[in-house]
Design goal:
single chain; mainly alpha; two-stranded antiparallel sheet
């Protein structure tokens, strides 16, 4: 993607750290959480690879096509999983579609990547930007800690859930998704 070098490296670090945490979440005892964490780890590491500054690494056209195939396959998997009408699977579908879209845009215009020009269809990019902006605001509001007064004591927590193993904490998973949403916004803006 494009943009300032320091911002690009911060985005790489954010996405790689998010992907690494999602790999750790795959140790959960709940199968659905493991499956979701695996898809999110793929997104995090894929975003980190795509965000490496062009001044450091300019992938060949076939690499962008490979990204498009991998994320297109992940989008099909998310589409299959969303048939049960689960909200997060629909979000994962939009995210993997956005990744495939950005990879295809970069494959079609590899010279634009090297020269920091624009790529992609402006209307679709705008729709994706709008979706991820709303998602980031919504997830950020849900991630913010809430305080509940009970018997004179203030109990902090997110969503009223009791903390379990640190890999199974829903607020950490939401923070992961928030970080990836912010990263997606940055990548779409850089297109």
């Amino acid at each position: 993607m494009h943009g300032s070098l320091s911002a690009a490296w911060l985005l790489v670090a954010l996405c790689a750290a998010t992907g690494a945490y999602c790999l750790l979440r795959m140790r959960s005892g709940v199968e659905e959480q493991r499956r979701t964490a695996g898809g999110e780890a793929l997104m995090g590491f894929g975003m980190a690879l795509m965000a490496v500054p062009a001044a450091v690494l300019t992938p060949p056209r076939w690499a962008w096509l490979l990204y498009a195939v991998v994320f297109g396959g992940a989008a099909l998997r998310a589409l299959w999983a969303s048939r049960a009408a689960r909200g997060h699977h629909l979000h994962h579908l939009v995210g993997t579609f956005a990744m495939a879209y950005m990879a295809l845009a970069m494959a079609v215009r590899p010279a634009a990547h090297a020269h920091h020009g624009g790529a992609g269809a402006p209307v679709l990019t705008g729709l994706l930007l709008g979706y991820f902006a709303v998602y980031v605001l919504w997830t950020g509001a849900r991630t913010a800690p809430s305080a509940t007064v009970s018997g004179g004591a203030v109990a902090g927590g997110v969503g009223g859930t009791a903390p379990g193993g640190w890999g199974d904490r829903p607020e950490l998973a939401r923070a992961c998704r928030l970080a990836m949403g912010i990263g997606m916004l940055a990548m779409l803006l850089a297109m």
